[in-house]
TrEMBL record:
This is Glutamine synthetase. Pfam families: Gln-synt_C, Gln-synt_C-ter, GSIII_N. PROSITE patterns: GLNA_ATP, GS_BETA_GRASP, GS_CATALYTIC. Residues 84-178 form the GS beta-grasp domain. PANTHER family: GLUTAMINE SYNTHETASE (PTHR42974), TYPE-3 GLUTAMINE SYNTHETASE (PTHR42974:SF1). Belongs to the glutamine synthetase family. It comes from Dyadobacter beijingensis. Residues 183-618 form the GS catalytic domain.
Amino acid sequence: MTFRSKAFEIAQGRVSPVLTPPTEKVADLYGSNTFSDDVMKTLLSAEAYSKISNAIRSGSTIDREVAEEVAAAMKSWAISKGATHYTHWFQPLTGTTAEKHDSFFDLTIDGKAVEKFKGSALVQQEPDASSFPSGGLRATFEARGYTGWDPSSPAFLMDNGAGGKTLCIPSVFISYNGEALDYKAPLLRSLVMLDKAATGVCQFFNRDVSKVTPTLGIEQEYFLVDKALYYARPDLLMAGRTVFGHNPARGQQLDDHYFGSISPRVNAFMVDFEFEALKLGIPVRTRHNEVAPGQFECAPTFEEVNLAIDHNALLMDLMQKMGDKHNFQVLFHEKPFAGINGSGKHNNWSLSTDTGINLLAPTSKPKENLRFLTFLMNVVKAVHDHADLLRASISSAGNEHRLGANEAPPSIVSVFLGGELTSMLEELVNKGEITLEKGENFYYKLGITRIPNLQRDNTDRNRTSPFCFTGNKFEYRAVGSSQNSASPMIILNTIVANQLLDFKREMDERLAAGEEKKVATVEILKRYFLESKNILFEGNGYSEEWIAEAASRGLSNIRETFDALYAYKTDKTVAVFERTGVLSSRELHARYEIELENYVKKLQIESRVIGDLALNHIVSTVVKYQFKLAQTARSLTDLEMLAEAEPIKEIIRDISSHVVVIKKLVHEMTESRKKANNIEDLFERAKCYGSEVKGFFDEIRYHVDKLELLIDDEDWPLAKYREMLFLE
């Protein structure tokens, strides 16, 4: 029995662990493992609680005395719940989370055991930064880096799975010189700047607004495969995706998996991780089957952006741990299987005021709609002016497999507003008036009396648009499923903040010159619409016609990651980030270097996996199978059954022709990789990998996948698509 068939046998015999649902109501369960506002209010003095609350709301500094009190309360709370260690939990530029656990246990001078956690340990920790990506911000031999407590994201308890819990403290990660080595630090800076810029613009419409908070809802797509079959696929293990695999006869063409009944085993996994997520304060609400077999989605309630991104990173880690418990491997790669849909991470972004107003929600009141149009058009203008930068923010080796396929937004950045909003903007330009009136809701008349009237939204959704307005928010659909959402949100927050600063400056100048406020606003918005109109697109973003039309409009279509990432280095980008203070030119260049280096390493790994599998697994297996066929053909020939032997000889010839090509292509790919590795300039190395080395991947795959159809099913060494995708 081959390892593959043994793995398949194990997979078929899997049974879900018996779940014991918690006795508490979900509302009581929610946040039970977080050092929440309610917990702080109970454990802290009124003065300390007030200072912490003000720091979270307004960004004021927390003094060391308050930090000591918070640390004592946090330690007491964590230990009472079974914690033995604490860690600063941070998000370095590796794309994953990181943590260094320290024990609460310590010894006094006279050798007595105590449990200790000082305010200094809460505020700051020093992990070794030498092995984290820095993009040249530090020399190789320089190891010092610092993590710093982010009080706006609640500390939480992570169950280690083998007894004991760890107190995790969300933190920023900076270099010895104070430069950001993570996603959180620039994200927090971008949120501060967007709040300042948006609040300034809100003041033109409502003086009561003193704070604007960006909100985010992250829809997470993923695949599940059985753990045994995962380990029977070295490519999944090493590269996160299947580099070989013939499409099964049945894939997603029947559209029967989407929103279909969730299998008991998968449902048990979902229920398990949702319970744990709720304990950690992650407000997961939605679960369903996605389009491709074996693909699923979960989504939370909208939260403040920083918290939403922390929760998504934590959720991905939690899902992997729960997957192990249920003998599943969770795949977050953007395209783990060829021929079926890949996975995205749709980022639904909006702006809310401290007065309870969603700034991206239209209303029936003209004055409020002018405010809505102001923010809408500033976002559109920002995306139009910095489309290449937004494209760079979602560029990766994994997303390169997904973007532009018949499943995901293309590499052309466009904005969908819907017919009604577009008409409204055109009226504003042509007549200087806002004609949209929400009026009464529109209901569908179904002609079925027992069905209640169904309300229609103001606009349909366009799933082919990478950046679409969906009624009261923008959905950035092009983000990859494995990505940290901070990267595109840093860009979006920054370019919108920069644009709002421009709008306010011009408004101030016009008002100072005596122009009436409404007239000034309308005139600026009219110009923004005309300057940005070419990025608005209502049609099918997957079509070939759109590619041609986008080119005629002058829109970029940057297909390759190594080209897209260059947007981080342009003078235009540097000017925006330095003006807003979100990233310095050094920090921007470092991120460019890190992303390019990561792209090279991912393709290098895939290339090595392809070569190893092709020669050491596929070709060696095929040669053995050929020998069996040759023996059969020889026996038939000896029996003078020449006609019967001929089809077998033909199969042997087919196999040989594919083997010859595979060996030739693997050799050429290896030589191409050696050439790329010897290129000093990082961009040129990435370009060589992306345009030359990667060019061999599909060619080799074609011949390997043909062999999968020729070799006896029992002899094929790799778990097949039909086994991985349709396993219950």
